[in-house]
Amino acid sequence: MIERYRERLPFAPEDPVVSLLEGSTPLVLAERVSERVGAEVWLKLEGANPTGSFKDRGMTCAVSAAVREGAEAVICASTGNTAASAAAYAARSGLTGAVIVPEGKIATGKLAQALMHGARVIALRGNFDQALTLVRELAERHPIALVNSVNEFRVQGQKTAAFELVEELGEGGPDALCIPVGNAGNITAYWMGFRESGCAPRMLGWQAEGAAPLVHGAPVEHPETVASAIRIGNPARWEEAMGAMAASHGAIRAVSDAEILDAYRFLAANEGVFCEPASAAGVAGLLKHGAEGARRVACVLTGHGLKDPQTALARAGSVVPCEPDLPAVEHAVLG
Ligand code: F0G
Fold first, then answer.
1. CA 327 / ligand 1 centre spacing (Å)
2. CA 135 – CA 313 distance, rounded (Å)
C-alpha cells in the first residue's frame, strides 16, 4: 500500500517498508441496502485486509516509520483490532510488540491474533480510555513507538481508503460516507484523504448509544455497547472528527445496540457480507435515517465478522442436529 501511494505518503523511496499487502480492498454494491434507502449504497470491505480490519492501512505506515526511526518496540492501547494489527506488523518487522486491552472486553478472534503474533498482551482492569492514557505516558518515558491513531502515520495510512473510494467510484467519489466512530482516527483519516483528492462527501459518523461522547458533547465515563470495538468514552481525535463533520456538512449521531445488531444480521443474511458489530454501525445509521438526499453512499465496514464469533453465535440461528441416515438427513435438509 505504501508502494502504491508512496508519493502521497510521508515515505521516501529508500525508506524501509513493513507490509502484508494491505489495502486495495473490495468495494461491493449493496443491492438490498440500496433498495431500502433509495440510493446507490457501496460497501468498502475493510475486513479483507491481512489482519481483518482497516487498522492494517495505518499500521504498515506506523511500523515502517518506527523501523526507520530505530525503535525497538511498539505499543498500543486497543479495543482489539489495533492490537491484532500492531502484533502482526511487529512480528513481521522483528520489533517487540506490546498491547494493552480492557480485560474481558475484546472479541475472541482479536485476542487470538495478538497472542499468536507473539505480542505481550496486557489485560487492563479498566477501559480503553484508561489504557490509552497509560500508554501515552509510558511511551513518553521509554523508547517505545506508540502506534495508536494519535500517531500521525496511522492517519496517513488510513487516508488511502478514501483515495481508493474516489478512484473506484469516479465522479468525485461518494456523496456521503457512513463510518463507525470510536477513537475517531478513521473519520479523521477519510476526511484527510477526501480533501487531498479534492472531494468533500458528507461525513456521517456513527457511535453506539452507550458510547457516544461526540453526540453528547462530553466524555462518557463508563461506555457500554455490544460493539466492543467502539466502546470508547473519550476519543483522542475528538476535535478532528468534529471538524470533519462541520466542514463536510455531515453529522455524528448514535445508533442503539439493537439497531447495530439488526444491520449486522441484515448485511450477513442479505448481502453475503459478514462484518463485526461495530462495523455495522454506519449501515445501521443509514437504514435508520435514510440517504438524506445523497445519490451515492459508501459505508465503511471496518472489520471482519470472524473477529467476534461469540457475538455472532449468540445472535444467529441454531444448527440442526441430525442422525447419520438418509431419511433423517432428508428431514433435516428439507424441513
Ligand atoms: N470499527 C472497528 C472494527 C474498530 O476496531 C474501530 C476502532 C472502529 C471501527 C473505530 O475507529 O477508533 O478510528 O474511530 N478500533 C480501535 C482499536 C479503537 O483499538 O482497535 P476509530
1. 48
2. 33
